[in-house]
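At this stage, I put together a protein sequence along with its fold in token form, as given directly below:
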Amino acid sequence: MPASIKNIKITSEVFEKRPNVSKWFNLINKHVTDVDYKVYIPQTNWQTLRCEIYNSCPQFVNAIRKTVMSELSVWSLTLDLYNIKIDYNDDRILIDVLKQKIESIAINQNIDSEKIKKWEISLEVANNTDKMMYIMSNHISIFDQISKKDISTKLIPQTIPLVPLQPTKHLKLNSIVISRGFGYSDMNAFPMVHSVFYKTLDGIPLQVLPTKFGFGFTTYGNIEPKQIMQMACNEIKNKLVTIKQYLPKEQETSNIIESITEFMANMVEIRIKNQRNIVTPLIAYYCSLMDPTIDYVAHNIVRPTKDVDILHIKHKDYKKIIDLAIDKIIGELEIFAKNFK
């Protein structure tokens, strides 16, 4: 029986009104009278999705959780230090810190990859006052050569401080690009989800497999939460389809199946590349559902981690049972994803 979803709620949170933030704003207002604190806070609302998942298993929900956290392709700003074009006279600016700040800006994820080629991204700031100022994310200019307009406010929904700039100093930077990456391999590719919420709702002893879960996450307001769930389901589905496609061709493919080894009285060890303990636990669990009399099935990972998962299975027709398991997971994923359209 496929998982069912109940009580899907999406809420918007005004950053300034968060309980743990408002007290600091009150303190700033009390002691700092010459600075408008509102220029330092996000200008878009964070969005939180929460739901309840029933008739499922930890492997399924955990696969969604891990995929949302680090397996989705993310657009982000990138500063190329090897080809940097920068002009500045403030020796207190640390370029590696500036790089980290720029690359942690959450940008709008609905980007046309072809249009990026016509965008010019720059950061140019001059402090013509006698007081220190902050270089802000909204100082970044993204100029569209086609429309002849600055589109930075559409792509950078938040206003956050980057680095301080001393009086009479300036900075000009022309080495910022937009690129795609994954959180598991690229530290700049995390600005999509702020936090992930996950717990069991069964209220049963831990030794009993739970079937009810609470799940959710908070975004920076740069992508619709339901779109993230659709992306997560598609990413898991694509991994499963790839494994199913290449499993019978292990001798022909080196970038998917690392090896298939038979040992210990028909026990088979399958090493699957480019996996991070997400779909392999799913396959192992669903193999046991497809044939409850299966002799043995379990998953493991290579340590130290090498992005290789290990599936141990003992079955007279292990490829067939894996195919059935993958088909079952994909079917349930498709039903699950329909709840977030």
In short: The mean pLDDT is 86. The chain is about 30% helix and 30% strand.
